[in-house]
Amino acid sequence: MNIDPRLNIIKERLRDVRRVVAISGGKGGIGKSSVASIGALILSKSGYRVGLLDLDFWGPSLDTILGIENIFPREEKGIIPPEIFAIKFISIIYYAGERPLPLRGADISNAIVELLAITQWGSLDFLIIDMPPGMGDATLDIIRLVKKVEFLIVTTQSKVVLETVEKMLRMLKDLKVPILGIIENMKITNSPFVKDWAKKFDVSFLGEINFDKNLETSIGNVDKLLETNFAHSLKKIMRF
Amino acid sequence: MHEWALAQAVVYTAIEYQRKEKLREIVELEIKIGELQQIDREIFEFALKEIVQLKKMTGMRVRVEKEEAILKCRVCGYQWSFADSMKRLSGEQAEFIHFLPEVIHIHSRCPQCKSPDFEIVKGRGVKITAIKGIK
After folding, report:
1. What is the domain count for chain A?
2. What is the ipTM of this complex?
3. Fold of the CATH domain B2-134
4. B120:A107 CB<8 A
5. Which pLDDT tens digit goes with each residue over A87-142?
6. Beta-carbon separation of A5 and B12 below 8 A
7. Distance between CA atoms of residues A189 and A187, nearest Å
């Protein structure tokens, strides 16, 4: 017999979390982390209890976007996420710092299981998970281990991105995983292409965010981030 | 008290096993704790005892064994024990590995070819190796 006991405690750890939303998409660099981090900020500013989990182990970036430094989880019957901007935040950066972390699939799975098994999130309205690109270990593990997860898909209008997003949507639909909808990011034309394209998959098109050239200079500064056109558009999409 | 979270996972797994196998009682549980996670055995066993009492499973005998952690390089095939790597780790590095054993890939290299691409063959963390119960 060889049973991994951690798998049986994950449900208990997320018992008081009302909704778990995985921010995903087929490719890197399409704004998943921006949607996850600024979305979490918007929810938190609106009075919701929010947790934010960075599962992009090869390229964790939520700490950089939100300008988070010098915080560390507290140990008490597991790990208690430190709170910043009223958001409970967990990332591999606490243990890996800025150093590269060369992990293969089995190690990624093990690290995800460990974080889910030992993190004491407490009561939350939303746990936002920033997913790595694609349909690899992290995506499969979240689907396997977090039964209440809902996926929010970020895309751009690029055909290269849409091709991968289509595969992702097909997989999620096949596995009957709830999909909140699609957000079109970095929009540079008025084309309704993505909105029309989404209809093919019977998935809600939640809205669009124009390419915001000021977003980059606001990275690391929460007040500036919340004043960007990106944040205003996202707020509208989230109906706040 | 990260050990408490893992001890709780063990007891919840035993309860789940009892339910699935329709057992009247679980009488014995065997656990291996991998060396890599550097679990404080005393705290872990204390937490187990507390949770077992809390869940009214006092008829269950728990046996805890330590498992040596073995690492194997995927590049040159060299195999070594974590105990050897441990000697070269700082207190902080060892603590990070305690929380998340996979970060060993940052702090250790294959002693022979210096690659970070190695496998944790055994002894990573906590696992249940046997459960005995009465129908």
Report:
1. 1
2. 0.94
3. hypothetical protein PF0899 fold (3.30.2320)
4. yes
5. 999 999 999 998 989 999 999 999 999 999 999 999 999 999 999 998 899 999 99
6. yes
7. 6
Question: Quick one: average pLDDT of B32-55?
Answer: 95
Q: Are A117 and B3 in contact (CB under 8 A)?
A: no
| pLDDT tens by residue, A8-56 | 999 999 999 999 999 999 789 999 999 999 999 999 999 999 999 999 9
Alpha helices in chain A (DSSP H): 10-13, 32-45, 62-66, 93-96, 105-118, 137-145, 159-174, 193-199, 215-218, 222-226, 229-237
CATH number at residue A38: 3.40.50.300
Domain ranges of chain B: 2-134
Cβ–Cβ gap B101/A114 under 8 Å: yes
From chain B, which residues contact A within 8 Å (Cβ)?
A: 1-2, 4-6, 8-10, 12-13, 16-17, 96, 99-103, 105-106, 116-117, 119-120, 124-131
Which one of A2, A7, A8, A74 would you mutate to disrupt binding with B, by most B Cβ within 10 Å of its Cβ? A8
The answer to whether B9 contacts A117, with C-beta atoms less than 8 Å apart, is yes
Count Cα atoms within 13 angstroms, Cβ side, for A199.
Answer: 4
Q: Who among A2, A79, A94 is closest to B2 (CB)?
A: A79
Kindly report the CA angle at A148 between A7 and A140, in degrees rounded to 5?
Answer: 60
Provide the pLDDT for residue B2.
84
State the pLDDT confidence band at B1, using cuts at 50, 70 and 90.
low
Q: Which residues contact A47 (CB under 8 A, 6 or more apart)?
A: none
Question: From the candidates A107, A113, A116, which should be mutated to test the interface with B, based on the most B CB atoms within 10 A?
Answer: A107
Nearest to A76 among B1, B8, B96 (CB): B1
3-state DSSP assignment of residue B111: coil
The residue type of A127 is: L
Q: What residues make up the domain containing A140?
A: 5-237
Closest CA to A156 of A208, A114, A202: A208
- Mean pLDDT for the stretch of residues A149-174: 95
